[in-house]
Amino acid sequence: MRAPKFSSWAWIAGVAVAAAAATVAAGTPAQALPSGTGWAASWGYNLQKNLTISGKVPGMELTATATDVNGVRKATGTLKDVSADGRCAVVKFYSGSYIVDRTICGNGKHITFESPEFSGDVLILACRRIDGQAALEKCVHQTIPSSVGDPGLRANGTGASWSYHSATDYTYSARRRGAQATGWGWHKPGDKRYAHTQVKKTTSEAGCVSAKTASPTFNFSGSECDPGQTTDIGAHDLTGWIQTSACAPFDGANKCVTVHVPEPY
Asked: Does residue 236 lie within any of the structural domains?
């Protein structure tokens, strides 16, 4: 078996540091990251070329499906309030305008929803808010790219997912035809995280696949040209969100699927 290949990460010069980091630099002691327990999100295509979608933050759950006929989509789903915490569950779909915007309040209560047809990129927010207040308190978001002009996106297995498996440990994945980026990481002291990504080529077609993992302060990337093989990339001391893209040239151009892991708050 071939030994894993490693690709180095690089510092991004001139990246603006987030306000929280500026506060730490000003002398405020760094605190541990909040617990990630109960945070997760995913989307993916199945054999029928339809989408499954989910999103969770503590106290709420979103599950949905969407048909996709040559890029024209229509979604149906269920939104649940799952905790007696004085919070409400909120779901929003945005594709040029808000095509879904629903709220349910009360432990154990749920609602179903249906979107109109849409064909562009769609941003999905799964959130909670304090009952009686308008401001969203905690959210996970994910963007599903349009499949208009990109029929390869609709292949079975295309998608992105991430979840926390404990208060500190998480996994993530981004996949499209020919390319798979899977990763894991954990919290570190001082508002820092570690992330490790493996990029795998999953087709025998000619060409290389690649992956890039980024945060507000670092990015690191790698590629793999051998079918069935993987390259490992990783970095310590990341701050803020973590975003990973898996890219492949097998659908007429180098196209990517991206997974975004937020920093719990």
From this structure: yes
Full residue range of the structural domain in which residue 192 is found: 155-261
**CA 238/CA 248 separation, integer angstroms:** 26
pTM strictly above 0.70: yes
pLDDT in tens, 108-161: 999 999 999 999 999 999 999 999 999 999 999 999 999 999 999 999 999 999
Tokens of 71: 């890029």
- Gap between the Cα atoms of 1 and 256, Å rounded: 28
Closest CA to 202 of 235, 180, 231: 180
d(CA 82, CA 182): 29
Which of helix, strand or coil describes residue 36? coil
Residue 15 lies in a domain: no
Calpha distance 243→206 (Å, rounded):
27
The number of folded domains in the chain is 2
Do 147 and 219 lie in one domain? The reply is no
3-class secondary structure, 37: coil
Query: Do both 130 and 163 map to the same domain?
Result: no
Query: Phi, psi at residue 147, to the nearest 5°?
Result: -100, 5
Please check whether residue 86 lies inside any domain of the structure: yes
Q: Which of 36, 27, 31, 77 is nearest to 54 (CA)?
A: 77
Task: For residues 103 and 50, give the distance between their C-alpha atoms in angstroms, rounded to a whole number.
Answer: 25
10 part of a folded domain: no
Q: What is the pLDDT of residues 14-40, one digit of tens each?
A: 222 222 233 223 333 345 789 999 999
